[in-house]
């Protein structure tokens, strides 16, 4: 429950809430270490209160990034007040529905919502990127060869090792496959833009028919294909091959309109980024499920593993890796 001190601060800063009956509801938010609450007043006024820990550096920069993205034309929640000493943020309530909530709807309903989300992230990749120099925004470490290799290692340690129980020698043999280390090297040498870093269906709110981005505190320089792959190979949602193809083509058109150059190898890089993102996600599921008491994340491993196998089969030099994935129980 939201501490009474925070409720009192809310009344002081937002007098409309102090004269009405109100209800405080905790909100579940994935694997986040932050706590989210909705304060709903009887007169239909509502807002979201976020309590964050200073242990993760990126949490302290959420407000600055939100205001920066809004100025760049990206739809994000409006910040009403920030108390950095207490680790509290009061911000706009965009409702209950994220993109994930539409996962069972017909494609005719989901398609424009996915397109809206891709349009917003394309603005991050272009308009926000053009504005970042001199903006004074603290970003997380950029995607580099070291970070791509860390993602791969995260998968081998927490998914293949801890979850599937592969021995250390086997893990090491596959972790050093030249094709995998080569992908990390290749991606690290490509031009970067600002990326969301966790662009998946539960981090996209649907409000009044528009897509709004949240959980962007991990924004950093990286590849646009990483964000696109994060959404189109989201383990929380099943997209068909034709749906993925449509959305990939849509993103490229939207990004071109925003001024992004689409290189001839865009789709090759997209699949390499999908490999990276899925390895990172599988590592996170293993870590959260086995070390943080979040067994619910382990349920997403089969879907993510199938997608990883599909992507790996598209890339040269990964036949041994594909066979390893096929051999897992």
Can you characterise this structure?
This protein is α+β, with helices and mostly antiparallel strands and 329 residues long. The protein folds into 2 domains: 4-92, Phosphorylase Kinase, domain 1 (2-Layer Sandwich), CATH 3.30.200; 99-327, Alpha-Beta Complex (Aminoglycoside 3'-phosphotransferase, Chain: A, domain 2), CATH 3.90.1200.10. It has 12 helices and 9 strands. It has a 5-stranded antiparallel sheet with strand order 1-2-3-5-4, with helices on both faces. It has a two-stranded antiparallel sheet with strand order 6-9. Helix 5 packs across helix 10 (266-291). The protein starts with a helix and ends with a helix. The mean pLDDT is 94. Pfam families: APH. Residues 24-257 form the Aminoglycoside phosphotransferase domain. This is Aminoglycoside phosphotransferase domain-containing protein.
Number of helices: 12
Strand content: 5-15%
Q: Tell me, what's the shape?
A: globular
Strand order of the largest sheet: 1-2-3-5-4
CATH topology term of the largest domain: Aminoglycoside 3'-phosphotransferase, Chain: A, domain 2
User: Mean pLDDT across all residues, rounded?
Assistant: 94
Compute the number of structural domains: 2
Radius of gyration: 21 Å
Q: How many strands? A: 9
Helix content: 40-55%
**From the coordinates shown, what is the CATH architecture of the largest domain?**
Alpha-Beta Complex
Tell me the CATH superfamily of the largest domain.
Answer: Aminoglycoside phosphotransferase (APH), C-terminal lobe
What are the low-pLDDT stretches, counting only 5+ consecutive residues below 50?
A: none
Structural class: alpha+beta
CATH class of the largest domain: Alpha Beta
Main β sheet profile: 5 strands, antiparallel
List the helices and strands in order. HHEEEHEEHHHHEEEEHHHHH
Measured between the Cα atoms of the first and last residue, the distance is 41 Å
Protein name: Aminoglycoside phosphotransferase domain-containing protein
Domain Aminoglycoside phosphotransferase: 24-257
InterPro entries: AGP_Transferase, Aminoglycoside_PTrfase, Kinase-like_dom_sf
């Amino acid at each position: 429950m939201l501490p009474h001190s925070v409720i009192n601060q809310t009344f002081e800063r937002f007098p409309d809430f102090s004269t009405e009956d109100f209800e405080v509801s905790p909100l579940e938010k994935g694997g986040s270490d932050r706590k989210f609450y909705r304060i709903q007043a009887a007169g239909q006024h509502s807002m979201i209160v976020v309590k964050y820990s200073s242990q993760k550096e990126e949490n302290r920069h959420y407000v600055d990034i939100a205001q920066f993205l809004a100025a760049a034309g990206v739809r994000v929640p409006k910040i009403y007040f920030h108390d950095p000493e207490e680790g509290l943020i009061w911000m706009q309530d965009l409702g209950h529905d994220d993109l994930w909530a539409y996962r069972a709807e017909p494609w005719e309903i989901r398609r424009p919502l996915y397109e809206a989300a891709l349009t917003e992230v394309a603005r991050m990749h272009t308009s926000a990127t053009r504005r970042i120099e001199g903006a004074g925004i603290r970003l997380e470490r950029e995607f580099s060869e070291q970070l791509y290799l860390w993602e791969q290692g995260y998968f081998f340690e927490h998914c293949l090792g801890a979850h599937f129980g592969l021995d250390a020698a086997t893990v090491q043999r596959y972790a050093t496959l030249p094709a995998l280390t080569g992908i990390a090297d290749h991606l690290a040498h490509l031009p970067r833009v600002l990326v969301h870093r966790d662009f998946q269906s539960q981090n996209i709110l649907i409000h009044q028919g528009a897509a709004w981005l949240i959980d962007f505190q991990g924004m950093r320089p990286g590849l646009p294909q990483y964000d696109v792959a994060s959404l189109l190979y989201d383990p929380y949602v099943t997209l068909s091959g034709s749906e993925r193809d449509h959305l990939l083509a849509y993103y490229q058109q939207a990004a071109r309109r925003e001024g992004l150059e689409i290189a001839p190898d865009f789709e090759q890089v997209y699949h390499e980024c999908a490999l990276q993102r899925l390895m990172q996600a599988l590592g996170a599921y293993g870590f959260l499920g086995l070390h943080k008491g979040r067994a619910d994340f382990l349920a997403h491993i089969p879907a993510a593993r199938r997608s990883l196998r599909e992507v790996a089969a598209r890339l040269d030099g990964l036949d041994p890796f594909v066979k390893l994935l096929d051999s897992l129980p």
